[in-house]
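Renewal narrative, Specific Aim 1. Our central claim is that a sequence can be written position by position from structural information alone. The example that follows is taken directly from our test logs and has not been curated for this report. It begins with the structure tokens describing the chain, in the order in which they were read.
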């Protein structure tokens, strides 16, 4: 009976793994195929040669990859810094001070977390358009800098583990609230800050919706919207697009593999505490 249960478990796990691995293999094989191979061979068929790099060369020549990576880096840098500052400041106020409006603010944040973001898209688009920042890097920057509710709660949960006696000791020494924030509170939030930063980097790097909607110009394309140039109304250049998908996936995969220990530890620590 135990052998049967283990066999079923392994079969189920293998089937689920295959569902995730199969699309990756198709993209990998397609990126090394010529147009003729793509039309004549099946998706899972191996390419004639894994040294066929013309698709990658074409992607770098036509895709304007350098500009796209530059735009993404600008959005990531501003968004990460803005999110960390705003999120930690909100957590500092809600976690360290008692005032009558605190339950109401937490309730409003909870409502904002529940309401799907797509339902407010019309109002958000109108606001960005009225500000005159549509089709500029400033439009997605403002949207990304707006602190995510999940990040606020991550900072808030972690801040509750910090003893309030540190604040009291600093107050006795004459430190102001702001000095306590940036000299004591913010440095002690380093694990949560690292987790928030990494998640934000991956999120902004892989986001296609906001840059595509708010920066439609070709010179403002990011890494995620770069592949739009390889699609048409009636035709998709799958071999070139597959090469591009692998190229733009490598940085986010490397970031995740390098920093996954900090991601899991930060999330778990904030949740448990």
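The sequence written for that structure reads:
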């Amino acid at each position: 009976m135990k052998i049967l249960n283990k066999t079923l478990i392994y079969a189920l796990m293998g089937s689920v793994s295959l569902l995730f691995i199969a699309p990756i293999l198709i993209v990998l094989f397609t990126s090394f195929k010529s147009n003729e191979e793509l039309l004549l061979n099946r998706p899972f068929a191996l390419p004639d040669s894994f040294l066929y790099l013309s698709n990658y060369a074409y992607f770098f020549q036509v895709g304007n990859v350098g500009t796209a990576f530059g735009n993404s880096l600008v959005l990531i840098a501003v968004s990460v810094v803005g999110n960390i500052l705003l999120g930690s400041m909100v957590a500092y106020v809600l976690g360290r001070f008692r005032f009558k409006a605190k339950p109401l603010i937490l309730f409003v944040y909870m409502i904002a977390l529940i309401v799907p973001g797509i339902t407010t898209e019309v109002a958000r688009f109108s606001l960005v358009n009225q500000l005159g920042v549509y089709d500029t890097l400033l439009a997605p920057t403002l949207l990304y800098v707006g602190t995510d509710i999940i990040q606020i709660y991550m900072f808030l949960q972690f801040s509750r583990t910090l003893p309030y006696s540190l604040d009291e000791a600093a107050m006795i020494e004459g430190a102001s609230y702001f000095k306590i924030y940036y000299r004591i509170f913010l440095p002690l939030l380093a694990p949560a800050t690292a987790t928030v930063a990494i998640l934000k980097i991956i999120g902004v790097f892989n986001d296609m919706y906001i840059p595509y909607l708010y920066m439609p110009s070709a010179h403002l394309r990011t890494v995620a919207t770069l592949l739009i140039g390889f699609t048409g109304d009636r035709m998709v250049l799958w071999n070139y697009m597959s090469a591009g998908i692998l190229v733009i996936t490598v940085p986010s995969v490397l970031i995740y593999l390098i920093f996954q220990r900090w991601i899991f530890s930060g999330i778990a620590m904030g949740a448990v505490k």
